[in-house]
Amino acid sequence: HHSAQTLWSLKTHASMLYIIGLGLADERDISAKGLEIVRKADRVYLEAYTAVLLVEKDVLEAYYGRPIIIADREMVESRSDDILAGAHEKDVAFLVVGDPFSATTHTDFALRCRQNDPPIPYRTLPNASILTAVGATGLSLYQFGQTVSMVFFTDDWRPDSFYDRIAENARLGLHTLVLLDIKVKEPNLQALARGKIVYEPPRFMTVAQCADQMLEVEEKRQGDVCGKEKLAVGVARLGSEGEQIVAGTLEELTGADLGKPLHSLVLCGKKMHEMEWEYMRDFAMDKEKFDTIWKRDYSGHA
Fold first, then answer.
1. Fewer Cβ atoms within 10 A, N terminus or C terminus of the chain?
2. Which PANTHER family match (predicted)?
3. Helix axes 57-64, 32-40, angle to 10 degrees
4. Is 99 labelled a binding residue?
5. Which domains does the chain have, with CATH numbers?
6. % of the chain at pLDDT higher than 90
7. Is 180 annotated among the ligand-binding residues?
8. What is the predicted pLDDT for the residue at 11?
């Protein structure tokens, strides 16, 4: 009889690409299984543009005892062959912040393994994702609608398609998770015009900026979807020791400072029931105002 241990090693003996979720906070959030694979893989890549960990690459390298190759957008989208090269003979680990399938990018990546000739066997190792970590706000994960993304507005680009998604959720009384823009390795356009590639310093959207942009679009669209008195909750660095959660109206959140990245925001839906309210009011910037608005607009108004 084989012991469970040898069965496990037989099963995993064929070389493959491992897509490994790292969780949300630091180098210790990888699973024990993921760490085993990273320590024996031939090459280790870190996907570094859909999200970032709260620790630097060298901290990861020291903990994993391995050099890490940073895979930026350009590499994953245009040179995925480099990453997949040799995955038939040797194990390759592709590390993803959060959970492997939370971002469609990684589904696309797994598809490339399938479509490769011959196909590259791959396995994914799940981990915590922002999509479930927002449960820390006390809002029920069963009551969330579509997730939307908020980009940094520029002078000539202020997309508001998120508004329609939120409106659809709001009609059903559902909460909306808003994922905030991050800019990593953005080329400087002036330098580009002179034929030089210079990267802008990384930028991370804050809860305050997001709330501000939501109010601006409400002002323009006037659909009572994300106005000043809508209740919302801002979160920062979820799952880390210094996580922060702040609840209030969107107007209040434009003045909230949740510190270092990464931030996300949840707009509450009308179905927010008593237990959600009771748990969340502890995070309120102004409890009295929070209670008043909840009783007036939310409790049982689904």
1. N
2. DIPHTHINE METHYL ESTER SYNTHASE (PTHR10882:SF0), DIPHTHINE SYNTHASE (PTHR10882)
3. 90
4. yes
5. 4-128 (3.40.1010.10), 131-298 (3.30.950.10)
6. 73
7. yes
8. 53
